[in-house]
Design a protein that fits this description.
By secondary structure, the chain is an alpha/beta fold. Helix content is about 20%, strand content about 30%.
């Protein structure tokens, strides 16, 4: 990939190079590899950390420069856009009309996309469910066996290229109407209750111990999270401001769907 990334970096510094076939074809190759799952905008490392591939995100932005708005069709549906709907899926993927994945996104075998939307650069792992009217934003990274409930908004980020996208790790459960943006990372098998909003600056407070422990931009693996409020002093008085609360932990015996449902009912967690 070194030669490919070098061409992208050169075109990023000098966009006029896109008039030359070598650079134009390099951009198109990156988007094709994203579409096939052979490249990712961010990837996990053996240490458990994630690395952002800036040059891949730059290629997406350059692709927008190359494309022109035109009429597009997907069956009986008609659109006007610069990027066509995705055409190639593994045979095990289900896309329920009018669910749409954009070219340059990847849906792994076993993914079910209900009438929702997956944007360019996003990666969705094996066996994940994207329920009705949920959206997976540009460059978001979603792991294997994740459940994204109805109406969830997984934010996208293309600029700046070095910004970390939203990361939902393997086995996580995202409750309905939740919003996760600004590069928040949801750890493996974590549970996010319905309506929870997570941003890079939103306090995520573990209240399961004798003293609160605060996180920002990271939900620990297996945490069970609901919406909360905490008091803050303003010149006009004391008011409650939103936060997220870790109220429990998902244990291995809760990994089965029925056991997880029983745990959430016991904790009064809306999903």
């Amino acid at each position: 990939m070194e030669e490919l990334s070098s061409l992208i970096e050169a075109a990023w510094k000098e966009p006029t190079l896109l008039s030359q076939p070598l650079y134009k074809e390099a951009v198109e190759e990156v988007i094709q590899k994203l579409d096939e799952g052979k490249l990712r905008c961010a990837s996990p490392q053996p240490t458990g950390e994630w690395i952002v591939h800036e040059w891949v995100k730059k290629a997406i932005l350059l692709f927008f420069r190359l494309q022109r708005v035109e009429s597009l069709t997907a069956g009986d549906l008609h659109f006007r856009d610069k990027v066509p709907p995705k055409q190639q899926y593994p045979p095990e993927v289900r896309v329920v009309p009018p669910g749409i994945a954009r070219y340059g996104s990847y849906l792994a075998p076993g993914v079910v996309l209900m009438p929702g939307y997956v944007n360019i650069g996003a990666y969705v792992g094996e066996g994940t469910m994207i329920d009705t009217w949920a959206t997976v934003g540009s460059c978001a990274q979603v792991g294997r066996g994740v459940h994204i409930s109805g109406g969830v908004g997984i934010g996208g980020v293309l600029e700046p290229p070095q910004a970390r996208p939203v990361i939902i790790e393997d086995g996580a459960f995202i409750g309905s109407r939740s919003i996760i943006v600004e590069g928040v990372r949801v750890g493996e098998k974590a549970v996010i209750g319905a309506g929870v909003i997570l941003t890079a600056s939103m306090p995520i407070i573990d209240v399961t111990g004798t003293e609160p422990k605060e996180y920002r931009g990271e939900v620990p693996p297996r945490a069970v999270v609901i919406s909360g409020m905490r008091e803050k002093v303003f010149p006009a008085g004391r008011f409650g401001v939103p936060c997220a609360l870790i109220i429990g932990w998902r244990r291995p015996e809760h990994d089965e769907k029925l056991a997880l449902n029983a745990l959430l009912r016991k904790m009064d967690v809306p999903v």
